[in-house]
Amino acid sequence: MVLRLDRVTKVYNQFTVLQELSLDVRRGEFLTILGPSGSGKTTVLQLIAGIAQHTSGRLLFNGKDIGRLPASQRPFNTVFQDYALFPHMTVADNVGYGPRIKGMNRRDLLSLVEQALEHVELGGMGKRYPAQLSGGQRQRVALARALINKPSIVLLDEPLSALDAVLRRQMQVFLKAAQRSSGVTFVFVTHDQEEAVAMSDRICVMNGGRVEQLGTPAQIYHEPSNRFVSSFMGETNALSAIVWSIDNDRVVLRSALGDLIAYKRPYYAFVPGAEVLLNVRPESVQLDVSGGAPNTNRLVAKVVDRAFLGPNSKLTLAFPQAQNLHWDVRTLGNHELPAAAGKAGEVTAWFRPEDCALVPASGS
Amino acid sequence: MSGRFSGATLAKSALAVAILGVLIVLPLAVFLAHSFYRMEDREIVRAFSFANYAELASNPAYRSVFVQTLWLALQVTFINTVVGWIVARAMWRRRQRLHFALILAVAVPLLLSYVIKIYAVRMFLGVNGLLNSTLTSLGIIDEPLGFLLFNMAAVRITLCVVLLPYSILPIFLTLERVPSRLVQAAEDLGASATQVFWTVLFPLALPGTAMATTLTFVFAAGDFLIPELVGGPNGFTLGRLIFTQFGLAYNWPFGAALAVLLVVVTLTAVVLGQRLAQPRWQRQNA
Ligand SMILES: Nc1ncnc2c1ncn2[C@@H]1O[C@H](COP(=O)(O)OP(=O)(O)O)[C@@H](O)[C@H]1O
Ligand SMILES: [Mg+2]
Fold it and tell me: Are strands A202-207 and A298-308 parallel, antiparallel or unpaired?
């Protein structure tokens, strides 16, 4: 572990932006801080970079408290959201800024800058000014300007949010590869959960100045620890239920749609009688086409809407037992109403006990 | 149709050119024309000659006034640009309330009458002035200092004091427009406060500096009232010389030739300032 935020609190004029936030950053990892706008992501990066000072708590780098070091003396570099390239310097001067400030001689600097520009596929662009570059190119200049200092950690604040969808995909791949090849620790901020899942070794989900959950993308997606995480991490079908009984490996639930069975995950701390929210991802809901579905978790529903989305279709289900409850189902390719639909458009939907996750009904 | 439309546009631009011509170019042309005339028996002789310019170039007294004026204006420009930068940098990024008060404090003197400001400095520097009485009452000096007023040094000091807002404001305003992100980026990359200043703040506020130096230089080179009021017998400048030619000496053609010289100096300063205000990175983007 290279960096530790230990119960860090940040207050801006009596407004608590971060509340006793603790976070460990591991050496060489791609850690993403994910959260809605205003959740305090930028503030976390600024505290790490030294651009802002925390109100209380500790900031430990390799075990040493660096909380009062000025930004210029911390071994971290930032890629700003709007790039913050120096408009009056050429691309080469921008990239070489850090080493030049530290007094590197001209000849070493030139070859270092050239190398850095090659590395971000901007060879030969050194003489241009930032205003003459495209968004994606500026992005890469900002990255090169940070990486050239060989920082322990690169901090990236929503670096892709200004790019269009296609370029964004390319830059995601590029950034990921740059992180892998340099071996530098990346702390990356985004509000886009797909981006976070695609790029990260670990994701830290933030909301309202707190960490909601920290884990691998798969953990965050499949095993959300609360309502906020399950709803923020993409589409989900939720259903209120009560824990009826708990076996070794299964939880029996009672709900408006009847008795349901959920696989018991090791971290669950529910007791019988607890109110929970059952979550099933749309792609985990299946339709019983051939009538061979298992007997558990079967739901009789009616298709009320269909949308063709290209690679798959989205069906919206309504349930006779529960008004106002709608679930979405993803069906691969075929957007026709499945053959399973009986009279009056009725279908049988089902899901596997291991494909659902339970979160406490109360709390965020 | 389109012919008539462009005819109307043409008429409008012709009008604009005509107004500019009447208000600026015509007076200058009149001056230029006068500078080639001559005085004989207190009458203007309207015959073309280079006599005035020849006199200007050959008479060492005029040459020295010219050089003295340029040197004075350069000194004032240099001092005020440095002081302007120091003040602007000190005002930079203050809390909102203080910020407003500071701008007001710098801008209000601009609204005061020019003559009042000059007399204020004169009262400060005079034999019975605030500076002398303070120094005497503190026992630092026994006799009031007479050399504070009515010489070139007094002209220099007064010009500096009166023109200072013209350097502070443009520098301060461009400095405030430098995005704080860029300062943060420089610090993040390891720059000290001094390095941030010289690599980010100063180059990005260069247009404001150019504005400040141009304004100060042009005002300082052309002013006649300050040398007239605090300059005494030695504080002679080009502006004062022109003033006497049109007044006391009653030699308009020679005054016009001096004025043309001043216009040339001014235009040169403006063009140089313009180049400084548009550094290479901005010209390339355009
Ligand atoms: N300099 C500041 N002064 C006052 N409030 C601030 C400042 N910076 C951020 N905040 C507040 O802190 C909260 C979190 O901001 P931020 O860290 O920028 O969130 P995010 O990057 O997740 O959108 C917001 O409510 C914002 O208004
Ligand atoms: Mg932000």
Answer: unpaired
How many Cβ atoms sit within 10 Å of the Cβ of residue B10? 10
Rg (alpha carbons) of chain B, rounded to whole number: 24
Q: Is A177 within 8 Å of A5 (Cβ atoms)? A: no
Tell how far the Cα of A154 is from the centroid of ligand 1, in angstroms. Answer: 21
Global pTM reads 0.85
For the Cβ of A14 lying below 6 angstroms from any atom of ligand 1, the answer is no
Q: Over 90: is that where the pLDDT of A16 sits? A: yes
Do A25 and A211 form a contact (C-beta atoms < 8 A)? no
End-to-end alpha carbon distance in chain B: 34
Q: Is the CB of A209 under 6 A from ligand 1?
A: no
Contact in structure between A58 and A8 (CB atoms under 8 Å): yes
Per-residue pLDDT tens for A300-327?
Answer: 888 888 887 877 888 899 998 888 899 9
pLDDT at B2 over 70: no
The answer, yes or no, to whether residue B142 has pLDDT greater than 80, is yes
- Rounded Cα distance between A155 and A188, Å, is 6
A98 Cβ under 8 Å from any chain B Cβ: yes
* Smallest Cα distance from A66 to chain B, Å: 14
Separation of first and last alpha carbons in chain A: 29
Element (H, E) at B102: helix B96-111
d(C-alpha A141, C-alpha A84), whole Å? 10
Q: What are the φ/ψ torsions at residue A173 (nearest 5 degrees)?
A: -65, -45
Chain A residues with beta carbon closer than 8 angstroms to that of B188: 49-51, 71-72, 76-78
DSSP output for A153-202: EEEEESTTTTS-HHHHHHHHHHHHHHHHHH--EEEEEES-HHHHHHH-SE
State ipTM. 0.85
Q: What percent of chain A has pLDDT over 90?
A: 74
Q: Is A42 touching ligand 1 by the criterion CB < 6 Å?
A: yes
Residues whose beta carbons lie less than 5 angstroms from ion ligand 2 = A 42
Does residue A265 register a pLDDT over 80? yes
Give me ligand 2 centre to Cα A46, in Å: 10
- Find all residues with CB under 8 Å of A353, minimum gap 6, and list them: A250, A261, A262, A263, A296, A297
Q: Which residues in chain A have their CB less than 8 angstroms from residue B190's CB?
A: 72-73, 98, 101-102, 149
The distance of A70 to chain B (nearest Cα, Å) reads 8
How far, in Å, is the centroid of ligand 2 from the Cα of A42?
Answer: 4
Query: Cβ contact (<8 Å) for A70 and B185?
Result: no
Which residue ranges form the domains of chain B, and what is each CATH number?
60-285 (1.10.3720.10)
Of A255, A346, A335, A348, give the one whose Cα is nearest residue A304: A346
From ligand 2's centre to the CA of A84, what distance in Å?
14
Q: Tokens in use for B212? A: 């400040």
Give the helix, strand, coil percentages of chain B, each rounded to 5. Answer: 75, 0, 20
